[in-house]
Amino acid sequence: MEIEVGASKWQKGWVVQKLLKAAAEAAKSNSTAYKSIVTSICDDHVQAAVSTLRSPDLLANLTVEIERETHDLMKYLTAAHTLGEVSPRTLDIIISKGEILSCYFIAALLQDLGIDAYVIDLSSIRTVEAPSGDVNHGFYEDYAEALRPVFLESGNRVPVITGFFGPVPGGLLSHVGRGYTDLCAALVAISLGASELQILKEVEGIYSADPRKVPTARLLSTITPSEAAELTFYGSEVIHPFTMEQVIRESIPIRIRNVTNPSGSGTTILPDYINASTSTDITSPRLPTLPAFRAPKFGISNASVSRVKRPTAVTVKNRILVINVRSNKRTSSRGFLERTFAILDKWRLSVDLIASSEVNVSMAFYCHREMVRGEGEARHIVDTDLRGAVDELARLGAVELVDEMAIVSLVGQEMKNMVGISGAMLSVLGKHNINIEMISQGASEINISCVVDQRDADRAMSIIHTNLFTFSD
């Protein structure tokens, strides 16, 4: 069994934005703009139905559903306006209305084509309550199990499913973010024991670089979950990490295809056991109670060069701020790092990249919002959390901020066995006069990252791809 899930660009790019705007307006005591937003959502859906459906009966039924759901939406927004705030749970309900409207529209369209389709609203599916904030694998496992009987009742009918599901403790948007549709698809695939999860995006699949900026980028036929996770974290919009975690744990491959070209091969994220069965890197078992040591490599054997090895992909993450802290040496190196991370935790700052020594630490942060404003000497911190963290870090030593930077990451499972790949990456950037602010490599050895000026980021990605990637046509 295969599950296909696609997102409408019209709904994703338009309705959700309008619903978020309506929620924001409802929270303002001096604004009633949310009412006109809801009216426009209703009118546009009805107009789309009129211009699309051939059956008068289906059109009449769909119009009733649209008016009912938007009336319900207006009630929630009015209640939020009265209270003067929109809770995470209320925001979930407001956003879910966009999913429900789309599902009724798609179901009616399928029925108009002679397909027996019906709507399943997953926002009303309830499972065992979890404490607020304690949403772990067990919660999603229970949810997938609760979905099973819902789909078994479908028989030969085609279910049209809302991508928004709930209720989730703390709010689905707060806990998962905008990738909830992918996660919902994963839970449906698990509940049905699917042989493959297909997610339809607006791209052909996952590329070795951004094809809009690197003309020589190639479509990747397969990648590993760890590679996909690294690419997602460091800038490539691959797939929501929660989605991958759920289905890969159940050994279900994920295939990413283009919504306008669903017959294309796309890119498949294969579970590790499948990749391991085809890997040439055989590692002998180690005693679990002892640390693992790797023997140094002094050369490359003929066997190791019999197959061309290369990184899998290169990606860029913009809007990076670097904080450099040089210790005043009043505390030990251990105490210096301990206090540094305690300060970051206190002020809710998450580090994307780190490089440290006994007396220095450099940390790269992704700016989800504006943190620094102004030019030259007038440049100043505007984010409250960043200001609090910098003030406390200044007690540990000299603090320097470098903004408008980008993280360039080279990712690949085979990079573990590629001698000199780090040097090659840094050398080629230096050769093309791209200055590197900081360098970091994870313990997994499948990712090498460096921070460069944001203005040089796309050029750096193109240079790395041109010089370090070898394809056999």
Name the descriptors.
disordered N terminus, 18% strand, 473 residues, ACT_Aspartokinase, ATP binding, 41% helix, six-stranded antiparallel sheet, nucleotide-binding, alpha/beta, VC0802-like, kinase, aspartate kinase activity, five-stranded mixed sheet, single chain
Could you characterize the architecture of this molecule?
- With 473 residues, the protein is an alpha/beta fold.
- It has a domain at 313-468: 2-Layer Sandwich (VC0802-like), CATH 3.30.2130.10.
- It has 14 helices and 15 strands.
- The strands form four sheets. It has a six-stranded antiparallel beta sheet.
- Helix 1 (9-26) packs antiparallel against helix 4 (88-112), helix 2 packs antiparallel against helix 3 and helix 5 crosses helix 7.
Overall, the morphology is: globular
So, CATH architecture of the domain at 313-468? 2-Layer Sandwich
Uncertain runs: 1-12, 277-307
Calculate the mean pLDDT score and round it.
85
Report, as a whole number of angstroms, the end-to-end distance: 33 Å
- Rg is 25 Å
Order of helices and strands: EHHHHEHEHHEEHHEEHEHEEEEHEHEEH
**CATH superfamily of the domain at 313-468, please?**
VC0802-like
Fold-level CATH name of the domain at 313-468: VC0802-like
By secondary-structure content and strand pairing, the structural class works out as alpha/beta
Protein name: Aspartokinase
Pfam families: AA_kinase, ACT_9
EC number: 2.7.2.4
GO molecular function, one term: aspartate kinase activity
